[in-house]
Amino acid sequence: MAFRGFALFSVMALAALAICGAAQRADRIVVDKRARRLTLLQGTTVLRTYTVALGGEPRGPKVCQGDNRTPEGAYVIDSRNLGSRFHRSLHVSYPNARDREAARKARCNPGGDIMVHGLPNGYGWLGRSHRLRDWTAGCIAVTNDEIEEIWRLVPSGTPIEIKP
Questions:
Q1: Prior bond of 71 cis (ω within 30°)
Q2: Which of 55, 98, 107, 127 has the most beta carbons within 10 angstroms of its beta carbon?
C-alpha cells in the first residue's frame, strides 16, 4: 500500500513539474541595447535576463546591410535554425516597413539576416567572455547554454522589441 501511495505521489509530482515547465513560455522579448540586456517576459513577469553582445557598431539603428548595427524597433521571432553557423539561431523579422523606408532613403539594401544566436560553431569554449566586446554583424549574441534555454522558452511568433 505504501508503494502505491509513493508511486501515485511520484506521478503527480512529475505531472506538476511538466505543467510548470510548459507554462514557462515567453510571450515577449525586450532587448535594451544600451544595457546589453535581453529579457524574456511572460506578461509582466520576468522569466530570464541575459547579457548580450551586439553588432560591432551598436549605437543607432541598423539602416544598411553591412553597417554592423543592431536594429531598433518592433519585430517578431519568425523562424528557427538548428543548422546555423552559430549554435542555434532565432530569426528576427527585420526589416519592417520603417526599416525598408530608411534604407530606401539612404539608397542601400537594409539586409535581413538578423538573429538571436549562440556562439559560432566550434567556439562555445569562449562562453561569457564573448561579451567583452560587441562582435556580431548586427545580431544579438548569447552563450550556447543561454541560446539553448531561450530556444526552449521562446516560441516562433514571439514579439521582440529592440530598444536603443
A1: no
A2: 55
Q: What is the pTM of this model?
A: 0.85
Which amino acid, one-letter code, is at 81?
A: N
Rounded distance between C-alpha atoms, residue 49 and residue 64, angstroms: 29
* 67-109 pLDDT per residue, tens: 999 999 999 999 999 989 999 999 999 999 999 999 999 999 9
| Angle (nearest 5°) at CA 118 between 114 and 124 | 145
**Do 61 and 102 form a contact (C-beta atoms < 8 A)?**
yes
Q: How far is CA 103 from CA 106, 107, 109, in A?
A: 5, 6, 6
CA 103 to chain centre: 24
Q: How far apart are CA 113 and CA 146, in angstroms?
A: 20
CA distance 141 to 138: 9
Mean per-residue pLDDT over the chain, rounded? 90
In CATH, the number for domain 26-163 is: 2.40.440.10
Pick from 91, 76, 98: nearest CA to 139 = 91
